[in-house]
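We treat protein structure as text, and this decision shapes the records that our systems exchange. Such a record has a labelled line for the sequence and another for the C-alpha cells. The record that follows is passed on verbatim for readers who wish to inspect the format:
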Amino acid sequence: MATVIFDFLHSVLGAHVGWGDQQVRLSLLLLLAFTTLALHPILRKSKRNPQGLPLPPGPKGVPVFGNLFQIAQGTQSGPWHLYNGWAKEYDSDLIYVEAMGQPVLVLNTLQAATDLMERRSPNYSDRLLPPALTMLKPGLGLTGMTYGPLWKANRRAFHQYYNKNVVQKYQPIIEHQTMAFLRRLNAKPKEFMEVTKYLFGSVIVQISYGLSDPVAYENLVDAAETIVRGFSEVLEPGRFWVDIFPILRYVPAWFPGAGWKRKLKGIEEVCKQVRQGTFDDAMERAKLGIQSDYPSVAGQLIEKLPPMDDPSYAYEESVARNATLVAYIAGADTTVSSAHGLYIALVNNPDVQRRAQEELDTVIGKCRLPKPSDIPRLPYIRAIVKELSRWFNVIPLGIPHICHDDDEYRGYFIPKGTMVMGNSWAIMHDAARFDDPLEFKPERYLKDGKPNPDALDPEAASFGYGRRICPGRHLSNESLTYMTASLLSVFNVVSAKDAGGNEIPARLQTGPGFIVTPMPFEIDIVPRSKEHVALLNEF
C-alpha cells in the first residue's frame, strides 16, 4: 500500500512540482503521521465506554489536538498550577484532558490518588512509555520498565540495598562526604550550588559503585545530571515531536530537523556509559580483589551473580546493572534540587534557622559536630526536611502511571491507556490540610516539641504512589537530614547583597520539566563563629 501511495505522489509531485525521491518520502511520512493522528481519537472513542458512563470533568478541547494548546500554555508557570486551577473551576479533584488522542487524568487530592494508585495498584502500576522514552531503553532501568516480572525482579534487587534498615549502614559514607562538603563550602561559599551537587553525587557514587576517586565523582555526577535532565525533558508532554508523530522515530538522525533524535542519542550514550562502563569497572575490581573503603551495592550484587556459564547469568547481570543505575540516577540529582530549595527556604526564614541552631546547641552542644546517630534527637531538624518535601516538590506531578484496563471511579469512565498523574503539588498545598500552605513552617510537623502524628507526612505524595513509590526515598531523607543538621551547626545562610549594600532576594523559581530544580540564585553562607569553623578540622 505504501508503495502504491509513494508511486502516486512521486508521479504527481515529481512531474508538477519537481520534487525528488527524498522530498516525496518526507511528504509521505508526514501524510501517514497526520492520518494516524487524525484517526486515532476517532477509533479510540468507537471502542471505549460500552456502559455510556461520562468522562471525568475537564475543559473542552479542539478536534485532533484536544487540550494540547491549553496544556502547553500552562507549562510556562507549571502544569501542576494549571490542573489545580481546573480542579477549582470544575469543583472536581478529577480532571480529564486529552492531548493528540492521549487521555490524561490528573488526581488533585490524596483521596483520589490513594483510591486509584494505592488501592487499585494492579491496574495503575504500569508506566506510560512515550516513543521518546522507549528510545532510551534500557538506559533508565526501573523507571522505564513496564509493570511485570522483570520490573518486580529489578525492584526486589534495588530494595535489598536501599530499604529503611539497610540505609543505616551507609551512615559512615554520608558522614564522611558531608564533612568534606562542609570544608569545601567554607573554602568556596559562593559556589554552594556546585559544592552541594558534588556532596550528594559523591554519596551515591560511593554507595552504588564503591568509587572514592574525586575525578570519578565529578565525571559521574555530571553524567547523572545529564541523564536526569534528559529524562525530565522526555516526560514533558509535547517536548519531542516523536511523541506526537510516533512514525518520526524512523527518521534518520542526520535528517534536517531531527536534532531531537540526536539529543536522545546523546542521552542514551551517557546511560550506556554508566550502566555498562562503570559497572564493568566494578566487576574488574572485584575480579582483581580490590576492596573499596565501604561495601558498595555493585560489589555486593556482583558477588551474588551465578557462574558465567549459568543460563541465568545474563538475566541476573542485567538486573544487577539496572538496580545500581537506578539508585545512581534517582539520588544524584533530585536530592540536589531539594537541597537547593532548602537554601531558599532558610534564607527567607531566619527564625527557622534560629530555632534549628538552638536545638543543635541544646542537644549536641557547641564542642562537636552532629553525627548521624544524633538525628533521632533532633525533631525540629527532621521537621525542616519534612516541610521542605511538602513546600518544594521536586517532581510536582509525579512520574505518570497508566491505566492498564478500562475502569470506573465515582461513576466516571477511565479509558484503558489513560495517563494518570497525582498532582503532588496540589495535595501538599491543600489549604484544607495545611494552614498557610505557601509558607515554610516546619512547626506544622511538631506537637509539644515532638513529631505530630496528626500531620500528613509528605512521603504520602512527594515520592510517588502505590507500587511505583520512589524506592530511594530513605537514602535521600537520610543524607538530606544529616546535611541540614551539619550545615546549620557551622553556618548561617543569609541574603547576598549588591554593591549598594541592598539585599538580593532569593526566590524559588523553577524551569520547565517533570523534574524541577531552582533557577540560579544568590545567597551568602557565613560561619557562625571561628570556633564553629575550627570543628571542621577535628573530623
Q: What stands out?
A: The first helix runs from residue 2 to 16. Residues 72 and 419 are 17 Å apart (CA to CA). The radius of gyration is 25 Å. Residues 1-19 have pLDDT under 50 and may be disordered.
